[in-house]
Amino acid sequence: MSLQSIADMRKSYELKELDEKASNELPHLQFESWLQEAIDSKIPEPNAMTLATVGSNLRPSTRVVLVKGFGPEGLIWYTNYNSRKGTELAGNPYASLQFHWVELERVVRIEGCVEKVSEQESDAYFNSRPLDSRIGAWASPQSQVIPSRTTLVTQAAKYAAKFLLNPPRPPHWGGYLLRPERWEFWQGRRNRLHDRLQYTKEREPSEHWIRERLAP
Predict the structure, then answer these.
(1) Pairing mode, strands 69-71 and 173-187
(2) CA 16 from chain center: how many Å?
């Protein structure tokens, strides 16, 4: 494919609309509705989201993770605390998330502060994972340079022999919770006049969400 043909790629977004009156006053309930629709539509990995963090060098980095829980308090995912994202969150706890459901012509963006979930919550989720995934959490020094794939295979065999069927949760592995301060719901529309609804949290005089339309 040439660069010119990429520049000429176009799509008209015409599936749905997003109106203030039809949307939920609470962003986590609007998200729940959209996520359920994505699941019902059989979209591949509807729980996949891009996580953006910023390092001490002020350069952003992104990667795809899977949301494993959500509610009024925020969204949860699990990972290695010593990974690049974990190191960057330790230095700067602010992050953003993005869901892109291509088939539904929708995007959801969330921004907020991140904190670790409790050890009990991390333990419960870790113990619910398949055995191979639990062994993998021990075997992989995530984000570190390794000599070859053989290193991973050897480490996996080592920890499988050590823990057998009951590997405990590694101390460097667990969950994060992003507490949203801003949500944006984007629905593609014809002629690039997309619908964008922004929810921002107002703390004074009381905590509630302000819902506003943004220009596309």
Answers:
(1) unpaired
(2) 24
State the Cα–Cα distance between residues 216 and 214, nearest whole angstrom.
6
Helix (H) or strand (E) holding 94: strand 94-101
pTM: 0.92
Which residues in the chain belong to E strands, given as ranges? 48-54, 60-66, 69-71, 74-80, 94-101, 106-116, 173-187, 195-202, 208-213
Q: What pLDDT digit, counting tens, does each position of 34-92 carry?
A: 999 999 999 999 999 999 999 999 999 999 999 999 999 999 999 999 999 999 999 99
Q: What is the DSSP letter of 9?
A: -
CATH code at 12-130+168-213: 2.30.110.10
Distance, C-alpha 178 to centroid of its chain: 9
Catalytic residue annotation: 192
Task: Give the residue extent of every domain in the chain.
Answer: 12-130+168-213
Two structure tokens written together for 29:
């309930």
